[in-house]
Amino acid sequence: MAIKRHHHHCCSSFIFLLLPLLLQFYSGKSELQLNYYAESCPNAEEIIKQQVVNLYNKHGNTAVSWVRNLFHDCMVKSCDASLLLVTANGIESEQKSDRSFGMRNFKYVRTIKEALEKECSVTVSCADIISLSARDGIVLLGGPRIEMKTGRKDSKESYLTEVENTIPNHNDSMESVLSRFQSIGIDTEGTVALLGAHSVGRVHCVNLVHRLYPTVDPTLDPDYAKYLKGRCPTPDPNPKAVLYARNDRVTPMILDNMYYKNLLKHKGLLLVDQQLTSDPTTSPFVEKMAADNGYFHDQFARALLLLSENNPLTGDQGEIRKDCRYVNRD
């Protein structure tokens, strides 16, 4: 009798353990996981890494583009590669938004996708390409190595109308910026760290001139303002002209804490950057990151990981696009 009871208990335990798996299978939803492509495309992550390195060696700014792609894709609804869809077949591209101004190198996403398609046709999602290329780009920029899970699927729609409600603008209030990041689970410390991505790359004069004309923003260091006026000599720059200023003149292509050191010297490029030092909720983190590059990297890695896992499509949600620019034709 005792044996029968024991047998019954084992079966009950087994069913209890199996139930969540059955429910997950039934719903068609599964979670992101490390090495998702270990069986279906074992070389996927290495192929992406090699392509990112090759592109970086030819066009160094691609590494910055990969980081920005992740931010712009994952902040809008989901990490689902909706950003990469172009205007076609009833889709209105998110790339048309003013928030996407200055984004480039989308054509090189195709280079990565084509290399993957040769190895494993219609297996690796464009959403995972966005996340993994950002991960590998960050390393090339001298940033931390971040272990990322994979298994994201690609959306079948674009969210152009959502972009302006979710991507913070360069002149938004700090309260608004913090609120937007908080809505996807990133705290104040993490938000300050993610804005450290402004340590690399450049900004078009269109987004700077309001701090220079008709009068110079008093929070700007005077010598720095003079330099910026040299880069942006008129109050109405042509958006299509090559008129840029580097985010960080000291280490322009290294993801480091020089960004925070510059902020403390009143050399923040965008209004949102400089607000980090004037807002009492963010300024302590600016000072801490300026003093400790390792701490900045740790917080950046933590926040970027959260961002990369924002509301992904998984399981039988979405699809694996054959071409990242277009939804698959049934």
Describe this structure in words.
- The protein is mainly α.
- The protein is 47% helix and 2% strand.
- It contains 13 helices and two strands.
- It has helices at 2-27, 44-58, 62-75, 107-119, 126-140, 160-166, 174-182, 188-194, 222-231, 258-264, 271-278, 283-291, 293-308; strands spanning 202-204, 244-246.
- The relative contact order is 0.16.
Give me the secondary-structure topology.
Elements: H1 2-27, H2 44-58, H3 62-75, H4 107-119, H5 126-140, H6 160-166, H7 174-182, H8 188-194, E1 202-204, H9 222-231, E2 244-246, H10 258-264, H11 271-278, H12 283-291, H13 293-308
Antiparallel strand pairs: 1-2
Helix pairs in contact: 2-4, 2-5, 3-5, 8-13, 10-12, 12-13
Q: What labels would you give this structure?
A:
globular; 47% helix; 330 residues
